[in-house]
Amino acid sequence: MVKLFCRVIIACYVFIAYVGCGVSVDPIELENNIINAQNAINQAENLDAAKFARERLNRARDFLDQARQARDTNQSVQSIDLAFRGQMQAQLAEAYAREQRAKQKIDQVYQADLRAMVLGMEYEIQIAETGKMIAEERAHQAEVRETQAEERANQAEAEAIQSRRESTAAIATARVQTQIDQAQSVLDTAKDLGALAYALTDYQTAEKQLNQSVFFLSQGQLDQASEIAVQAEQTARIARTMAINGLTDAQASQSQAYAKANFVVSYAREEIRKAERVNALIHAKDLITKAKRLSEQANNAMRLENYDHAIDYANQSKEQANQAYVISNTAEKLRLEQEALEEKIAQAKDMIFKAEETFNQDIDLAINLDPNGYNKSKLLLDQAQKALKSNNYDKAIENAQKSINQLKLSIKNAQRLDTLETQIVQAVKQIKKIGSVEINRNPNGVLIRFSKDVFESGSAKLNQKYFSIIKQLGRIIEEFSNLKIRVESHSDSIGDAVENKKLTERRVNVFMKYLLKESNLSKDNLTAVGLGEKNPIATNINKTGRDKNRRIDVIFLTRTSPPIRNKDL
Question: For the residues 429-442, what does the mean pLDDT come to?
Fold first, then answer.
């Protein structure tokens, strides 16, 4: 309420200032005061002021009607005063309505708190009674479970006693059977190792002891069966050891000869495979064929256990294979180097062909909107072609690939830039009454040109008919807030060149001041320059040409700053 009273006092001072000083009233300011009064009335109505402060609201409406009548009869000062009075009455009505609505809400909240408190107490009583019932039921169930558990425990104890009695005998029988099986396993191993030839007596003794142990086990005499099974295993082990010793002595000399021959034969085979890996069948066919034949003869001698002949054939095979490897390895390296060179040449030609094909696509956008990227890509292709002619195939491949990548990037940037500039042009064309303003795309970006009567000749006063257009243009610039904007002022050649330069500087400052006032633009992205008469776009001989030269150019610098997309891209 204090703030409203202060506003009324300020309004009175303003009214007195207007009447006392005899200053003419700006029509725009007058209209803004009437609109503010109407907005205040609308806001009060939205808060039910007609219900809570009807008298003040009606008084505000009357003041607004009187203000409009005064405006229509050109009584500007009186109209502003009446509009202020209407606005103040509306704001007082709004404040009183807010107060009454707040009181209603407080009463409603108090009643709701009381109801919630009663319901909460009833709910807590119900919870307590339910908890008691649940606790009693759980206690009863625990008693039942305890009785059942005791009965199951007694039954399990009885079953366990009976099970232990039955399992003791089975365990003892299984233990003796395991001993018998173990002794039989040792005896079988001894037989496999030649015990019948080198330890016949011990083998037969162990076999007899095992038969006795099996008999006693079948009669249930477990102690006797276990004792004899242990003796049978010891005897079988003695027979197995004697068989191993006899077999080892007999095979020792034969094994040494076999091992030596097998090593030489294996080494010869490896030398043959080594030669074959470098295509010896192509480069040294006779030598590798002879090596294989000798290797096969060595294998036959091994099968006949004629190890001396096997070693002789294997050594000859190894020598032939080694010669084949030396010849073939040199020839294979030359072949691989030639194939690698031919493959590199083919890769270089293919990559250059792909780069040339890329330039056959629709690249007009890249040429026009990203000429630097296009020229860089073209230069890389030329360098790749020169590298191919000078047999520098790696450089040719590298530059051709870079050319393709650069051109694709240039096309992509140009497409993105074209989309951005098209959006800007379309947005500007939506401005009301924009028909008198020229919209073009130039090497710097999108050009919005105000000419003819935006300023009178020799004047820095901005024509009011462009106010709305400039204001709407400011909102569009806000949508593309990451772009740099350049505002240029130009003059005709009437008068002194130095004075014309100063005049264009004043004009561009006036234009910029109004643009910033009517928008939320940042000065950091805006550049303003006055260029005088040095950049005419038409002749200065006649009035038509001078009107064109006397202009303001607003340029969206899409091509001299990073093409950052707005929220719609």
Answer: 86
